Amino acid sequence: MLKNKNILLSAVLLPAAMAFAQQNGGMWIPTELNEKEMKDLGMKISAKQIFDPTKPSIKDAVVQFDGGCTAEIISPKGLILTNHHCGYDNIQSHSTVENDLLTNGFWAKNPSEELPNPGVTVDFISDIKEVTAQVLAGTNGLDQKAAQEIINKNIEEVKASLKPESWQRILIKPVYYGNKYYAYIIETYKDIRLVGAPPQSIGKFGSDTDNWVWPRHTGDFSMFRIYADKNNRPAEYSKDNIPYKPKYFLPISIKDKQENDFTFVYGFPGRTTEYLPSIAIEKIMNDTDPARIAVREIALKTLDEKMRTDAETRIKYASKYASVANYWKKWMGEVEGLKKSNALENKRLYEQSLAAKSPELKNSLDELKRLYTEQAPYALNNAYYTELLRNAETLNLANRFLNYSASLEQGKMDDKVLAKFKNELSAFYKDYSGELDAKVTAKLLALYANKVPAQYLPEGFKQNFSDANKNLETIENWSINSIISGRNSLNGATVYTNIDNVFANQNQLVSIIKKDPLISLMASLKEAYLKNADSKYTMLQSQIDAIQKKYMAQLMQADQNRKFFPDANSTMRVTYGKVKGSNPRDGVFYKFQTHLAGVMEKYLPGDYEFDVPKKLIDLYNKKDFGIYKDKTGDVPVAFTATNHTTGGNSGSPALDAYGNLIGLNFDRQWEGTMSDINYDQKYSRNIMVDTKYILFVIDKFADSKWLLNEMKIVK
Ligand code: ARG
Ligand code: ASP
Q1: Do residues 86 and 202 both lie within one domain?
Q2: Which residue among the candidates 52, 60, 210, 220 is catalytic per the annotation?
Q3: Do 77 and 99 lie in a common domain?
Q4: Are 567 and 275 contacting, i.e. CB atoms less than 8 angstroms apart?
Q5: Ligand with an atom nearest the CA of residue 64
C-alpha cells in the first residue's frame, strides 16, 4: 500500500523536476520569458524580439480585442485578424433577415466599405513593470482590511509615478493571489471596422457539435482594421480617421508544418486556477460545474427548438446561444478531464508531500478544507443563482430595472449613467423575445425551486414555483402588467417603441417598477439570496482568499523545483510548446493536422452546423488550391499544439520559431479542457486555424486579393 503510494507520489512530483518548465503548462509574462528553454525547444529569435518596450517588437502586433479576445496586426495598414467567434457579435449586429452577414459572409471591396462598430476597442500594451515592492510597501503585519487600504493608496501613487501620456492608461493587477503586482501601460483604440468574415458555414463550421472537439475543420477567423487620428493616436469613430500605422506587424508563413515544430501563442488569457487546493477542485467537479451545466442545458434546449424553425429568432439569439452553449460544453469537458487526468488524487498526493515538509503549509491546507466545506452549500446556491440570472432573461431584465431604481433612490443616477443604461436596454431589447424567454424563465424558476433548499428561497417560493407549466401561466399573466415585457406602456410608449419616453419621468417610472409583478418576483429572489446565502458566501470567500494568498507563498517556498507561472488574469502572456497530435485514449491517435478533405467528409447538405458553401465545394472539386496546399496536395485547415491556452486566447497569434504567424488560436480539444485547473501535457492541446486555410479563403473563396496585397507572406 505504502509502497504503491510512493510510486504514485514520485509520478506526481516527477514532472516538476523535468527539464522543461512548460511541460507543466504555463502562461508567462512577456517580460519574464524562459528564453533558454524556448531556444532549446527550437525558437530562433530572442526574448527581446518578443517584448521590447523601447524598440518595435512582436508585442506591438498583439492586441486585446474588445476586452475579451486577442487579435494581431497583419499589415502596415492596421489590418487585424481575430476569430470569427470573437467578431460574431459585430457580424450579427450588421445582419438582418434580408442581409444576413452571418450566413453570407462579408468582404469589403475597399476601405470605404469597411463597417464601423461603435463601442469596440483594441488595447495595446506599451510596457509592463513589476511593482510589487511599491504596492505592498507598508503592509507587513497588517490585517487584510488595513493592508488593502494601503495597497489601494499605493496603487494610485504608482499609477501617478508612471506618468502616462494623455492617450494612455495604467492598469495594476495582482498575481499569485496578491503576492506580486504588475503595472500595464495601455493604449486603447476605438475606431475598429469590420473588413471581412467568411460565412458561418466556414467561420463556425461544426458549430456546437464540433466546439471543444478535435479533429476540427472550422475556419474561425474574421478581419477588422484599426483606425486612428491623423497623428496615429486613438480617436473616437470619425470618417476622417485613417488606417493605423503599426510599430510592427506579423509576417504570415505558409510553409508546411511538421510535428514537433516549435510554436508559441501570444495573447490575453482570461482566467485559470492552477493553484487551487484539492478541496476546491472537488467542489467544482461535484457541485458547481454540474449545477451550471443543468441550468444551461434547459435554456439551450428551449432556445434551440425555436431557433431551428424561425429565421428571425435564429439571428436574434445566435450570439447569445453560442456563448451559453460554449461554457455549458466546456464545463462538461472539464469535469470529464479532471476525472480522466486524475486531478484530484494527484493534487491530494502533491499536497501531502508538501505538507509533510512544511507545517505552516499544512495549516493553510487544513484551513482551506474547513472553509471550502463550510462554504459549499452557499457556493452551490451561488452557482444556481448566477446561472438563473444569466439565462432567464426576464429575470435579468427585472434585475437591471431593480438596480436602476436603487441607484436613482441613492442619488447615483446622473445623465451619463442613465444614457448608458438606456443604450444597454435598447441593445438588450433588440435581441430579446419575451415570448420565447418566458418559456426559458418558467423552466429555470422550476429548477431553482426544486434544487435550492427552502432556507435560501423566499417564503412560499418552493410551493408556488416548482412547476414549469404553472410558472409559464404566471409569467404570462404578470407580463400583461409589466413594464419590462414591453406590454405595459408609460407616457404612450413602451421599452420597444420609445425608451426615452418611458424614462421621461423617472419618479413615476420608479413607482411603476415597485409595483411590477415580474420585478417584484426578482426582488424577492434577490433579497432571499443575498441575505441567506450570498452574505455567507462572500464572507467565507474573503477568508479563503486570505489563506489562499498565504498558501500560494508557502507553495512557492516548499516546492523549489517547480517553475511557477502566474494564473491567467486577462493580461498579456506567452505560452509555448510544440506542434503535436495526441493519444487521448487507448488505441486512439489524433493527427496534429486536418485538411479540406475533412470538411467535405463532414459535409451535410442544408444542415445548420455542417453545411458547406457551394463555392468552397467547387474549389475543392477542382482542386483549385493555389499556393495554399501542403505536400499532401490538400489545404491544411486546423492544427494542434501543446500551448497552454484558455478563454481570451481566442484570436491569439500562433507563431513559429522565427516569429511568423502560422495560425490563429481558437479552441482546445475535449480531452484537455480541464487545463484551466489541471493542465496535462498528455491531453491538453490548443487548436488553431492554419494560416494556409485563412489565406486560401481570403484569396480563392472571397476573391479579396487587395487584402493579401497588404500582407507580408513568407513562402
Ligand atoms: N470553444 C471556443 C472558445 O471557448 C470557441 C467558442 C465559439 N463557438 C461556439 N460554438 N460557441 O471560445
Ligand atoms: N475559445 C476560447 C476563447 O474564446 C479559447 C479557449 O478557451 O481555448 O478564448
Answers
A1: yes
A2: 220
A3: yes
A4: yes
A5: 2
Q: Do 234 and 102 lie in a common domain?
A: yes
- DSSP result, 514-579: HH-HHHHHHHHHHHHHIIIIIHHHHHHHHHHHHHHHHHHHHHHHH-TTS---PPP-SS-EEEEEEB
What is the distance between the alpha carbons of residues 71 and 82, in angstroms, rounded to a whole number? 5
d(CA 226, CA 232) in angstroms, rounded, equals 10
Look up residue 652 and give its DSSP letter: P
Q: Which domain holds residue 238?
A: 30-121+190-268+571-714
Domain boundary among 555, 585, 612: 555
For ligand 1, whether the C-beta of 211 sits within 6 Å is yes
| Dist CA 659 CA 49 (whole Å) | 9
Residues with CB under 6 A from ligand 2: 69, 645-650, 666-668
Ligand 1 centroid to Cα of residue 211, in Å, is 6
CA of 573 to the centre of ligand 2 (A): 14
List pLDDT tens digits, range 451-501: 999 999 999 999 999 999 999 999 999 999 899 998 888 888 999 999 999
Beta carbons of 442 and 475 less than 8 angstroms apart? yes
The finding on whether 68 has its CB within 6 A of some atom of ligand 1 is: no
Active site residue 542: no
Do residue 231 and residue 285 come from a single domain? no
Residues 412 and 490 in one domain: yes
pLDDT in tens, 341-365: 999 999 999 999 999 999 999 999 9
The string of pLDDT tens digits covering residues 135-194 is 999 999 998 899 999 999 999 999 999 999 999 999 999 999 999 999 999 999 999 999
